[in-house]
Inverse folding.
């Protein structure tokens, strides 16, 4: 029995160090030698969770819950795994069960808040997060989660306060830094957001979500520029019909517009923090962004040609076609920009152009 | 009679895949056909060691006629066959003691015998040991004794629960030098300049006032030969080599990790000159801010204490460490006097990849291999990836041999097909390395990594 305890302690250490595969191997042996040990199954579930084997994690957690029905931990583990599998209703039920079993333990409330947030029930999440704060006011993770709940409810100031509190309690909390970036982004402060994402990536370089979020911000900026470019282009398309100008001024107008858009991209790059510039340059020069720009510029050029080179009598028929071409070019270019972007955790249904919270705190 | 080259090829294949039971059985059959009975018996013994119930091996060993000629169709009841031989005057069954003695497998395992001591008794010696077919069973037994190690030695009660120094840390001579490391000239040059030259030239070192304080931290993607290079460094210094991994040191008992770490350094001091190689030092010396559990924190503290001791005593203990994640190593470990020098060990270059291919194919039956082409095809692969390519190619050839009923050599086509199957495994590492290079290269600590990533257009 002592030996099993020692081995379990060993496995727990491995898990603390993030050695999920080694821990899984050890725990597979332990649960087969001691199938009645609820703790072994819980640790096994945790190892599976760490290795992103969520279905196996649910199985192991359920085994633990069957062995020790009065324990809250198996339900929290199951809730976490179910959330990753996208079974939000079940995850919330498992979290509620863990809270029922240990209402005075703050982690159960955090678990409920997380599950409720994932299930799209921010009101339940807010209540649970408030309860967790009452029980553990000095836990950075409690404030981190409270900030996420506040952000989901649109309370940007509250979200910022919670994340800043989390950082005050743990200055290396990269998740909180990332959340501050997301809050800045909601306030349309691109450079500020990128600064926070850079801090998070610097603190935890092995979490790829942070650099991905920088990419996302840059792609969103390019997408916004394309949108503005198309709006201006559509306005310009009316000029020949109204002022009866020739092809040359119209072409000059288009060239100016293209140059202005490219100039805006360049200005955006120069305004970024130096660390992000290299990454941004790479993103802007990526095949996806180049293709999107080519599609939208090509589409708009075709629309301009259609308007510029037809006799003025045919303009009423040609103009709508030109407008439709421009809109299609914008839609296709945006779709191209939204094509898969960097590492995205399995089961994550968030749009590739939405900045993500970290999958778990490292 | 089987042609000798075929047998040699099979021997090579068995040496490369010692656990492949069907292959070994096939070799034993061929050896019996070729009249090389002693060697065949040795292989059959090895088969039974791995698969104690293997009916085919038991049949071949227990049937005296088997050794003389081609394999007969297996009898319907193996145990019955064993029983029949038991009843005869021949000492054959008793002369297959190794599997019985070591693995508990016995012809009577199904209860056919009475389980008395007579059933387990070794046969007599001398002329009686020689069967009617002239086969020397006694000699075969002796050979099997060598092949099959005894499972339990000594008094079970004497196994110590504590750490036995000799058992825990083997201070060995590696017999390797940097000349054994294929390619990686840049790494060797930097190793020479940063570490080996001062170590090897004590007079010059004194002249220039160069201190021996501090160790060398090797870092780079996994499977790229950091451990091999560390062993080669020990060989270059003519020092003993102690390798310590995460699993050796981590123990949750409070005080136990510290004791293990202290004991390790004591062993190293007693065996000086000695290279202590801390593999996966990020696990042992992880940032203390990331460590929530107290025993691990105190393990890191103890490690720091020992490093300082080694530095001040300078007892001929050279420190090397390796990690895939230097950014996770406690900064205290990287201060001057500790692991203050770092060396990036990158994926193998062209000549190194050829060397790795040559190494992994050296004991396999191969023909017509174009190493230069393979090296070109595997740009960006780690040494471990290349080992996997060779393993996959061997597997293909083996399966094909089984399908066709005759062994064949591993060819270029097998290896190229395997290269297509095995993808390089370093993507995730480079993703993290890119983040480090872009955002966490404080003080230029990772300038060589940045230069490499730029060269490969990864940033």
């Amino acid at each position: 029995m002592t030996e099993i305890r020692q081995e379990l302690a060993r496995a727990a250490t491995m898990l603390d160090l993030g050695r999920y595969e080694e821990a899984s191997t050890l725990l597979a042996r332990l649960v087969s030698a001691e199938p009645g040990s609820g703790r072994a199954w819980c640790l096994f579930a945790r190892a599976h969770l760490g290795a992103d084997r969520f279905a196996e994690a649910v199985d192991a957690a359920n085994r633990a819950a069957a062995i020790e029905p009065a324990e809250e931990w198996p339900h929290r583990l199951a809730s976490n795994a179910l959330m990753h599998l996208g079974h939000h209703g079940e995850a919330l039920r498992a979290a509620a069960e863990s809270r029922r079993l240990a209402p005075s333990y703050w982690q159960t409330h955090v678990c409920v808040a997380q599950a409720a947030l994932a299930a799209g029930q921010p009101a339940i999440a807010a209540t649970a997060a408030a309860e967790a704060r009452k029980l553990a006011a000095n836990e950075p993770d409690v404030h981190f989660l409270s900030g996420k709940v506040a952000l989901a409810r649109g309370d940007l100031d509250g979200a910022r306060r919670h994340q800043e509190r989390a950082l005050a309690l743990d200055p290396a909390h990269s998740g909180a830094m990332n959340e501050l970036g997301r809050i800045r982004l909601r306030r349309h402060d691109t450079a500020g957001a990128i600064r926070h994402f850079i801090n998070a990536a610097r603190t935890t370089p092995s979490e790829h979500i942070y650099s991905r979020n920088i990419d996302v911000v840059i792609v969103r900026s390019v997408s916004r520029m394309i949108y503005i470019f198309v709006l201006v282009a559509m306005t310009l398309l009316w000029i020949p019909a109204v002022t009866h100008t020739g092809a040359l001024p119209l072409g000059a107008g288009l060239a100016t517009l293209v140059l202005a858009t490219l100039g805006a991209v360049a200005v955006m790059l120069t305004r970024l923090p130096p660390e992000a510039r290299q990454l941004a340059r790479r993103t802007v020069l990526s095949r996806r962004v180049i293709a999107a720009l080519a599609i939208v510029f090509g589409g708009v050029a075709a629309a301009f040609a259609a308007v510029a080179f037809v006799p003025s009598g045919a303009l009423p028929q040609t103009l709508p076609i030109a407008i439709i071409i421009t809109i299609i070019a914008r839609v296709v270019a945006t779709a191209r920009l939204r094509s898969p972007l960097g590492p995205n955790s399995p089961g994550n249904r968030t749009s590739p152009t939405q900045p993500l919270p970290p999958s778990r705190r490292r | 009679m089987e042609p000798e080259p075929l047998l040699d090829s099979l021997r090579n294949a068995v040496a490369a895949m010692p656990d492949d039971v069907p292959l070994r059985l096939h070799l034993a059959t061929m050896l019996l056909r070729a009249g090389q009975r002693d060697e065949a018996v040795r292989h059959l013994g090895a088969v039974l060691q791995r698969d104690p119930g293997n009916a085919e091996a038991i049949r071949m060993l227990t049937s005296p006629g088997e050794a003389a000629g081609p394999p007969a169709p297996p009898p319907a009841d193996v145990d019955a066959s064993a029983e029949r031989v038991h009843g005869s005057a021949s000492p054959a069954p008793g002369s297959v003691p190794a599997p019985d003695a070591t693995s508990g497998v016995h012809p009577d395992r199904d209860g056919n015998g009475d389980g008395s001591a007579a059933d387990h008794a070794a046969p007599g010696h001398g002329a009686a040991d020689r069967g009617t077919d002239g086969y020397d069973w006694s000699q075969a037994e002796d050979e099997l004794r060598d092949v099959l190690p005894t499972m339990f030695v000594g008094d079970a009660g004497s196994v110590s629960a504590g750490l036995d120094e000799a058992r825990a840390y083997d201070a060995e001579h590696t017999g390797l030098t940097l000349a054994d490391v294929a390619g990686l000239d840049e790494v060797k040059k930097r190793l020479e300049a940063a570490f080996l030259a001062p170590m090897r030239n004590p007079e010059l070192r004194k002249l220039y006032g160069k201190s021996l304080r501090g160790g060398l931290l090797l870092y780079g993607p996994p499977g790229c030969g950091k451990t091999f290079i560390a062993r080669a460094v020990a060989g270059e210094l003519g020092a003993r080599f102690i390798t310590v991994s995460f699993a050796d040191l981590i123990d949750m008992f409070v005080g136990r990790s510290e004791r293990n770490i202290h004991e390790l350094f004591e062993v190293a001091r007693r065996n000086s000159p000695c290279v202590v190689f801390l593999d996966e030092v990020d696990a042992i010396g992880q940032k203390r801010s990331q460590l929530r559990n107290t025993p691990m924190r105190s393990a890191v503290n103890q490690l720091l204490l020992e490093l300082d001791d080694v530095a001040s005593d300078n007892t001929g203990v050279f420190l090397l460490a390796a990690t895939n994640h230097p950014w996770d190593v406690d900064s205290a470990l990287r201060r001057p006097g500790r692991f203050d020098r770092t060396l990036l060990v990158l994926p193998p270059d062209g000549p190194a990849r050829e060397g790795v291919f040559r190494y992994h194919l050296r004991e396999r039956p191969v023909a017509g291999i174009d190493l230069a082409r393979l090296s070109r095809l595997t740009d960006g692969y780690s040494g471990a990836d290349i080992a996997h390519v060779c393993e996959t190619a061997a597997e293909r050839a083996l399966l094909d041999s089984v399908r066709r009923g005759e062994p064949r050599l591993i060819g270029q086509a097998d290896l190229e097909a395997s290269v297509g199957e095995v993808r390089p495994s370093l993507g995730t590492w480079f993703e993290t390395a890119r983040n480090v290079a872009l955002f966490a290269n404080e003080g230029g600590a990772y300038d060589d990594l940045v230069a490499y990533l730029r060269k490969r257009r990864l940033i």
